[in-house]
Write a structure and sequence with these properties.
Elements: H1 6-27, H2 40-51, H3 59-64, E1 67-69, E2 76-87, E3 93-103, E4 107-109, H4 113-122, E5 125-126, H5 128-143, E6 147-156, H6 157-160, E7 171-178, H7 183-193
Parallel strand pairs: 2-5
Antiparallel strand pairs: 1-4, 2-3, 3-6, 6-7
Helix pairs in contact: 1-2, 4-5
Bound molecules: guanosine-5'-triphosphate (GTP) and zinc ion.
Residues 87, 89, 127-129, 156, 158-159, 163-164 line the site of guanosine-5'-triphosphate.
InterPro entries: GTP-CH-I_C/QueF (IPR043133), GTP-CH-I_N (IPR043134), GTP_CycHdrlase_I (IPR001474), GTP_CycHdrlase_I_CS (IPR018234), GTP_CycHdrlase_I_dom (IPR020602)
Family: Belongs to the GTP cyclohydrolase I family.
Pathway: Cofactor biosynthesis; 7,8-dihydroneopterin triphosphate biosynthesis; 7,8-dihydroneopterin triphosphate from GTP: step 1/1
Length: 194
């Protein structure tokens, strides 16, 4: 059987969800037949499909696909990885930066795979704390490094555009495993991410 194209794969979702967006547009008092928003239910459904595609992906498989044996056993740091996710309470974006470090234990991973797994977990409904641990545990169990650290700095639109309406507050979450539990290693990592 031939593989389905991306469109064939996502079409059932888009067909279902666009009718929900049509209902939202009507309920907010807009005219859904107005020229500019005629195709908006479909566009919004496609955007939502994109932003939640992480449910369909296997992050461990992504890491396992590019793991290489290597003796290097100092810290590997990938910092300032852009983050865009949706908070599970309001389905509004939160966005910021992710910093990931690990200390190899005989195996390294292709560098691009770290931002890829960040995206897999970010493209789901999330809270920042769980996102931090999802990334941390995925690297820890798959790569089995000597240590792994994840820090996320983010701003939440649900706290900016609505609710408490605080424009300048940022939330930092962190998780440490293995050698990063050691104060000296952790401090070196924190110094490197500034
Ligand atoms: N811990 C945590 N809380 C979050 C995150 N994203 C959003 N929230 C919070 O989730 C909470 C939901 O609280 P509720 O009182 O049920 O919802 P609400 O009435 O819309 O709350 P307000 O935002 O205070 O208006 C709010 O305090 C949000 O700020 C996150 O990533 N982590
Ligand atoms: Zn929220």
């Amino acid at each position: 059987m031939p593989y389905k194209t991306y469109e064939e794969y996502t079409q059932p979702f888009v067909d279902e969800v666009k009718s929900n967006y049509l209902s939202i547009i009507k309920n907010i008092g807009e005219d859904p037949s107005r020229n500019g928003i005629l195709k908006t239910p479909e566009r919004a459904a496609k955007a939502m499909q994109f932003l939640t595609q992480g449910y369909e992906m296997d992050p461990e498989k992504i890491l396992l696909g590019a793991m290489f044996e290597e003796d290097y056993d100092d810290m590997v740091l990938i910092k300032d990885i852009e983050l865009y996710s949706l908070c599970e309470h309001h389905m509004l974006p939160f966005f910021g930066k992710v910093h990931v470090a690990y200390i190899p234990n005989g195996k390294i991973v292709g560098l691009s795979k770290i931002p890829r797994i960040v995206d897999v977990f970010a493209r789901r409904l999330q809270v920042q704390e769980r996102l931090t641990h999802d990334i941390l545990e995925c690297i820890n169990t798959t790569l089995q490094p000597k240590g792994v650290a994840v820090v996320i700095e983010a701003q939440h639109m649900c706290m900016m555009m609505r609710g408490v309406q605080k424009q300048n507050s940022a939330t930092t979450t962190s998780g440490f495993r293995g050698e990063f539990k050691n104060q000296e290693t952790r401090n070196e990592f924190l110094k490197l991410i500034g």
